[in-house]
Amino acid sequence: MTSITPQRLVKLAIVGDGGVGKSTLISRLVTGEFIDKNMTIGFDVESWTITTKSDSESIKVACFDFGGQKQFRFFQGSLIIGAKAALIVFDCNSYLSLMKIREWMDLIVGVPDGKKLLVGTKLDMGSGIPIEDIKEVATEYGVPYILLSSKTGENFDLLVQHLKELVCESEDKMI
What we know:
By secondary structure, the protein is of the alpha/beta class. The protein has a single domain, classed as P-loop containing nucleotide triphosphate hydrolases (Rossmann fold, 3-Layer(aba) Sandwich), CATH 3.40.50. It is built from six helices and six strands, in the order βαββαβααβαβα. The chain has helices at about 20-30, 75-80, 95-100, 100-105, 130-140, 155-170, and strands spanning about 5-15, 45-50, 60-65, 85-90, 115-120, 145.
């Protein structure tokens, strides 16, 4: 007889300006491969399943990928309600995308403290933003940060580790 692993559902909000690499990051997370994606129109939802350290349960993570263009903001706040964790994504080569983190932090204000992670993407293209500036923004909002490349997979294992910690600590069983 096969044992069925209980499964929890957790909602993860992924926000950031258009073109910073949110959809590509999610594709790498879900498939383990680099898939260059087009910009998201409105929002998209992808499912990612992780197993707890004890292998006693699996957790299905509903990754809500929010289009970064301003015309989509009017409905995004209501879709973020219930998110148990959030990734705030910026492009390592776009200082403007880092400076707009404030707008995204305001949008995800309902996500619990300690459940947010600042993610710099496109590290394979170098980093045009001084690390001190990234640290300053992360410190201002009291969030950890990670720089990675969805294309090469650099530091992606660290992202997965951070996400597992954020998601596995969530107590709720529903999205």
